[in-house]
## 1
Amino acid sequence: MSLIKNFASVGGATLLSRLLGFARDIMMAGILGAGPVADAFVAAFRLPNMFRRILAEGVFNTAFIPLFAKALEQKGEEEARRFSANIVSSLIYILLALTLLAEIFMPQLILVLTTGFADDQQKFDLTVLLARICFPYLACMSLMAAYGAILNGLRKFFLAALAPTLLNVVLVAVLGYLVFVAHDTRFAAIVISCGVLVGGIAQIGLVAWALKQTGFFPGLTVPKIDNDLKKFWALAIPAILTGGVTQINILVGTNIASSQESAIAYLYYADRLYQLPLGMIGIAIGIVLLPELSRLLKSGEQQKAANVQSKSLFFGLMLTLPAAVGLYVIANPLLVTLFQRGAFDGQAANQSAQALQVFALGLPAFVLVKVFQPSYFAREDTRTPAIFAAVSVVLNIGFSLLLFPRLGHVGIAWATTISGWANVIMLIMTLAFWRELMLPLSALGRTFSLMAISAIMGAILYFAADFLSPQFVVEQFPLWWRASALSVLVFVGAGSYFFLLHLFGIQRLFTTTQIKRRLLHFPAEQAAQPARNEYRFAANRVP
């Protein structure tokens, strides 16, 4: 399967998960609103998610995959199976101990995460209760990440990417039930937290089944402290910081924002919107690119590795830049249409939209991190990205403390965006200094072209949004009308962008022969010979 098809496979599964996540968040906003109960649930749910992405995804998508690929390439399947069983078993024992300690010391953990809740005993106690229900989700998801990493190392991407949809399927069902029976937000938050745990069990079940089909399912053993395990944890310790830098930044932002009423909820709903393109593009690139680069570099195919990274950069920017511009321009219509109903009022939508605009400015940086970090990880260098991650965390803390008193929750979003761009700049400059950037000069020209086209699309979208702005008044128009107006804006933005891509030859969408075949229904044999003026795919010119 080609690189782009793998991107599309992972991105498509992620898109399905994120769309179901939107349905989940729309229903949750109506049931929990943006008040103290919503703050409590978001803080409780983020705790296991943060540990999962740091301890599981951060480790297994950076430290495990290069070593697993090396074992497969150089030692064969049996040794790779033994290696994976030893690593996964060590993770399970760590997770069991961590879960037990977290359940015991949950009040102290919540106090660290949300110091602002200490002044409201009722909110604090509810957060502790919800976190204790949600936290075992960490063990399920961490094990799922481990199994998913093995699947990715075997270049079986789809089911590992599809598994997160099960959480949203479970939660949408739970929320649908609550729409009819819940009249108390506290009760609703408890039921949703139970749904989180059920969703985690469902996800690990799917990935475990998929792994068994490959014959690579790692059985539980007593971990053997050999050279492979020592090397894994030597790589994993700095990878914990590197892979979890975004989660650390979220933790810092959540802690600081906890002193402002509803700020955590405002940031959460803004975060959910920009996570859609980040998940589809950035995470898909990171998942697919690392095993590909690791395999090519281990086999000494430097030029192919350079081609893979160049195509990844082009693919990422081609989709990320317009997404960032679009989120910035139509942030308010998006929040109003998707979330403003029930307990989520116009003030909440406006405040979340302001945070979304700032997050949108950082979206290209968050995606570029996923493009350039694998160049380090594939070479078994987790220390350098860890240093950069630590610097970005310090910057995030500093800017959060500086901007929050002046800008409130929007200052937290600015700090996240600034630290994200700082991380990218350090990654790129260091690769260039080491002569390992592996990008042709033509990539710079394509980047400026994509930026120009995205800016033109943004201008078109701005005027369209201004013209349609009266259609988003909640008091005057029903949801279906506002959703239709939003669909028009999305169509105008996407349509103009891809038309400009084709017009300026950055990415041809169709050849002349393909257009004729579609419009005139030419059979394949009649279209076998290309027309004299047939365009060539611009993608073929990408190194």
## 2
Amino acid sequence: MPASHEIRRTFAIISHPDAGKTTLTEKLLYFGGAIRMAGQVKARGEKRRAKSDWMKIEQERGISVTSSVMTFEHKDLIFNLLDTPGHEDFSEDTYRTLTAVDSAIMVIDASKGIEAQTLKLFEVCRLRDIPIITLVNKCDREAKDPFELLDEIQETLALDVAPLVLPIGSGSTFHGCFNVTNGEYYTGAHKGEAFDRIVETSGIDDPQLDELVDGQLLEECREMVELASVGYSEFDLDSYREGHLSPVIFGSALKDFGPTALLDLIAEIAPAPRPSPATTRTVNPDEKKVSGFVFKVQANMDSHHRDRVAFMRICSGDFKRGMKLRQIRTGKDVMVHSPIMFFAQDREIADEAGPGDVIGIPNHGTIRVGDTFTEGEQLQFTGLPAFAPEVLRRVRLPDGTKVKQLRRALEDLAEEGLTQVFKPNIGSNWIIGLVGILQLDVLKSRAKAEYGVDIDFEPITYNMAVWVKCDDPVKMKAFMSANVNNIVHDREGSPVFLAKSQWEIDFTKERHPAITFMKTRELIQAEA
């Protein structure tokens, strides 16, 4: 019988907005047996709301703003799908979710190729050597030439590609997809309809295909398969798992071409939970003792209860409900009475969980992003980043009687990673920092819906924020005194330098060479 970590696959889906990620997520859940009906995201009313999107602003806009976790089974394996925001302006939550997965699916629009957001998320995956399977989606619409797309992936991402499933036609001539590894032809009973049957062939030259595919199109496809076999890399498992090669599947999530092939491919090649780096050593998933780290905190998932749920990736051991775990930052033991397993807004009490699984720990603000839990060992998992914000605003409160609600809202939402909150040395108004501009709308919407407080934002004279540190306390004090107007403190009490431009940061560096200026910092929750 395989070890518990060997039967788990924990992965994320990354893409640019509108590449079809939410539709693909639904179809994977549908074909994995987790939901009974996959609704079309563009349909009206209830069907428009993807099963993984629960926040009001997500339902209104038809986008994923937070990262959801969904667990389901397929081929005797446990799949943990972490859904990441795909819209243009996303929060640190997206980056941190990628620290909790062992592989990723990259979704690319067949008519647009690689877009800015895809590139940004791919770079985060590359930093962590996360293996990537690529789905070229929307082949049922007019698309770029398959070779043009494959070359673009290879050149833009500096990644070898191994085409495994190629399209037969596109747009109005789309007949289906051909699996070059096993000769399966995925098609529909009628041209243009959804995938509903597999024709087993001996290969692309099988005479069966002459009866099923238009003559000229079949000739082009046969030529394409032949050229692909010599023009691109063969699939190599080690190269894929090291993050150097991406297997590529062409398909259409909307028409069901791709999801089943993807599920089978993930089951076959995606890595089981990998070792996790920590401050004192690397933790292997097959270790007996339970350990894990919190990569996300979500407030108010249930609108009827003021709950807070910490999402913990289990790195080792077999977790059992009711276990006592040591919270390293506080040094206190926590009894985990009601751990949750997720399926979007549905949740169940988890009696047990293994390495690679994500459980939710309900709490009242005592658990933070970056917290490590163990069965007593003093170690801290590393690799969770905090990023310097790209957007800075001062928070304005029209109703002065709601200061308490405002403070609660900002503290909760900062804890989630939606925003960073800075306290200035001078003046009483909070300053917030965000990774993307859309988060202003999200912050305003959630403050109103969940905390009953209306807030506004106003620009400030500063455009950049960086953390500062110095090993010499005397020099640090002198720097803080000389720049009192530019210094604010984050919610952990760490000093942050605000600047109007990169030139100002560079100029200040020259005047204070002992000070280190940082655009990212390791989110390690040290002991209190």
## 3
Amino acid sequence: MDVPSTEAPYRREEARAAAGWAWSAGALAIAALIAAPILSVLWLAFHPTENIWPHLLSTTLPRYLGNTLALAALTGAFAAAVGTGAAWLIAMYRFPGSRALEWLLLLPLSVPAFVGAWALVDFLEYAGPVQSGLRATFGWATARDYWFPDVKTRLGAAVVLASALYPYVYLLARAAFREQPGGAYEVARALGTAGPRLFWRVGLPLARPAIAAGTAIVMMETVADYGVVSYFSVQTLTTGIFTTWLELRNAGGAAQIACLILGLVLALVAVERASRNRLRHYQSARQPRPVARMALTGWRGAAAGLACAAPIAAGFALPVGVMGWHAAHAPGAFVAPGLVRALTHTLTTACTAAAITVALALMMVYGARMAGRGLPRHLLPVTALGYAAPGAVLAVGLLIPLAALDHWLADGLLAATGHDPGLLLTGSAAAIVLAYVVRFFAIAQGSTDAAFGRVSPSLPMAARSLGRTAGGTLRAVYLPLMRGTVGSALLLVFVDCVKELPATLLLRPFNYETLATRAQEQASLERLSEASPAALLIIAVGLVAVAFLARATREKARR
């Protein structure tokens, strides 16, 4: 008589435990990879080869810091006002064109802020259509005959950045206004509160956490910007990194400025979270009635439509129109030498980085879930630091260690084979791809973590009980159910990689161009005709992401 073996169940349990440890170890390794550039920046800042911090502190650093803080505050205020106002009109009122404007307000997301800067200056400069029209209308001969404001100022930079970044506030504020209970507004109207007072007393207090979150994102992107501030000659901390590193040849000083930027960004995150923690609003257990949208007709409807159309014109129509005008008057620029190569480089690096980022995010989140409440789960928030760190900061943290590793690998291969392979990492696009992965890992990680949470736990448990391994469960159960989220994450990371400028400028190999760097180089030489094809291609890629985002938002609203 055969006796059933009792060792098989224990072996299966040991195999499952070993698989869990393997996934957890992989999650820890990925978290270390994402956090390494930040740690590298800190190490370089506290161990500089030449400490120029006292010199920076007594000369240029106060100006860098003052301009950065003022620009972030101005941009945040402008974007909050525009995004919140547009969201209130769209969520609370019906007027001619409101349904189309609801989605058209997202279009500036497809336009990099530096393209908007070039377009605004070209439109308003002395030889531009505005001043030329004024001179022709009033008979002025030279600039001495009239006064016109200078566009290339800190205020002008704030207007450009707010025009490109206000959709972050608009998206969150619109969702917050729509999720508010309609009963609160009905009670307020019954008590005599209407018009602007309804916004200030009911709508704004309830939506303030969402508005604060969107404004914090805008201010973080402003602190990280390089294209707009360099073109407008506004000296900020980001331009200070480029000056200290590339002109003064001092990586330690650049790392010290990078730490200051990182500190500002983390302070913004802390303030935003503190503001949300102090404001708590709860809904009843019953499904609340949605807010009833009021109809605006006549001049009020027209004014609401114009108010919503104005940011679209400034953030999308003007940049696309100016770039399109230059491209139409110089069609040969589309076949200029180097454009196809820059497009190829852009698509190659962005596709590679997006695929690696999403794959690592899947492994990280799945490994953390396999570990339960262990260390990998606690490290998930740490991996979001890369998105908070500007591209210039990551470039400082990556280039020095990668250069040292490159030389070590080259020396080892030369000693072993007698052949010098050259610089394998910093001499290729590998450094750019790694910077993209670290910079945008939080986007993929947040999306996949939310998608894992929407899968019923009974499904993977059933798969494991039927003999599926951890990897087999991921492939057979999770990935088919998360296909849409994974596709969204791939697209969003891809588009952000296409638009990333500071990290690409600092980490690209010699004579290596992407669409962003090619457009930046041509625009810095005042050759907008040569810059326009690359700029339009970047916008076209961004439009795909905006269309996908609008479609996903519309489907979610229907559910």
## 4
Amino acid sequence: MPAVFPGTTTATTTVSAVVAVALAAGLLTGAATTASATTTASPVTARETATAREAVTTPVRIHDIQGTTRTSPLAGQPVAGVQGIVTGVRTYGSKGFWFQDPRPDADPATSEGVFVFTSSTPTVAVGDAVNVSGTVTEYVPGGLASGNQSLTQITKPDVTVTSSGNALPAPVTLSEGSVPSRYAPAGDPAAGGSVNGLRLAPTRYALDRYESLEGMNVRVGTSRVVGATDAHAELWVTVKPHENANRRGGTVYGSYTAQNTGRVQIQSLVPLAEQPFPKADVGDVLTGGAEGPLDFNQYGGYTLTARTLGTVSDRGPRPGTTRGQRAGELAVATYNVENLDPGDPREKFDALAGAVVRNLASPDIVALEEIQDDNGPKDDGTVSAEETLRKFTAAIVAAGGPAYEWRGIDPVNDADGGEPGGNIRQVFLFNPARVSFTERAGGDATTATDVVRDRGRAALTLSPGRVAPSDPAWTDSRKPLAGEFTFRGRTVFLIANHFASKGGDEAITSHHQPPTRSSEIRRHAQARTVNTFVKKLLSVQRNADVLVMGDINDFEFSGTTDALTAGRVLYPAVESLPRAERYSYVYQGNSQVLDQILTSPSIKDFTYDSVHINAEFADQNSDHDPQVIRFRP
């Protein structure tokens, strides 16, 4: 039935013309409008005061509140009698409801929906026609320092329900043809690179398209999952099934300008206690899609908060495997095992160990990242990881794998970042039946290994040893671990890394375009120290076999990789794969490279595999996929 509203005017009211008078009358404490208020206005008359008060309290439409930019022209101002139909109610987290004007204007840049923050459980229901008064605010999820866009909302609301059971405004369907392929406009240099003040162009840019629908009822049809269900009951789909697709069902992030505009995050408005959220892996299909208000949140940006949610059809691939190495091949892997410590359940150890044996085919050497100390996050000064490694290598033997030995260096307590108290570090596992480790004693947390010439060939002064541990690039970060191995009479140098994380970077949905990637400074400096060390090795022995590997925390096309490879001393082996297969991690629906193995020029003939066993799946033993390289030294 049609919505029933009280008999108030439906005309759009513009308050900017009287803002100066309203300010002078003390009705507004801070205006975010296009009006230019001056302090030299003529004395305020009673008639002008009444006019200002009427302008502030006269009903406005939702599209007047949303405006044509990312921030409301009425931010900070009170509004009264805003009419619409409730399209979604959130009873957990940031409590409130969305409502939408069923009579849209003709401007595609203006949204017709908005969120009402109630702070307590809302008393309205979907389908209610409501009148809302309150204050227009711009809420920045994550705070101003995050760089996130803001969410326009009405706060401190006074809500009147005028009728119930009304039909909802028809949803706007997000589809391949409705979302532009260009991601975002360039930010305004005069505004520090922000796009907040730019008029939305929803037919040109994907972020503008989503912003023009903020708070509105939207839907996606049956869609492919590109980000597995996570611990927060969220998943990602794509409305552009052909956009940078890979054969396993994901969508690949292959450059800073290939953000994959069809990705949409989906949550449920129904509390988990009432309806479990579907478990989905990358490549599965959300049959029936989803419908609900389009929100903006700290973790993922534009998010469809679903009133109705389809079912998951199992279409995704199974965990991957790689072939075993041949007799003359050396197989080397890198694997981030995500804060492994003895307190983890036996199931995690068994699953990780089984992956090493069955999915990675028991490589000759495995460089591990995120091995924690013997009591995990308990911060009592413990730095040894002997118990962690004993438990892990025993699990590998139990799974049918080799009896790996290990080499590593305990860090200074609380000096290498990561989970507080955990003292994560890199460790080499190696199969002594096929590989020998060249022991050069004296390595510790603070002493740097170096390169010397030994009988005409390069050698490390300390093995295992740390690369430039006192360099400021490694402050509160994991120091590189170097080791010297021998395989069939040939020396191979390995440098295991875990570069600084991307923490502090702005999201790709940031109001700065391009976003600020402040964490790169650390990784670039770290990459330069490793590059310098490799150059020293190659200056002593030009044909030395060197592998640089680990959780680089950056893309194959990044400045970090450029710094690692400067002077062509290293080659990112992941680039030997087809572009659609280059990924080791899935973040917000983007399949991307974070884990890498880089080779020195002497390693020309190799096979490389990114073994997809974690990142694409809701059930994970780590959030990273291991990488494997095989070659003949």
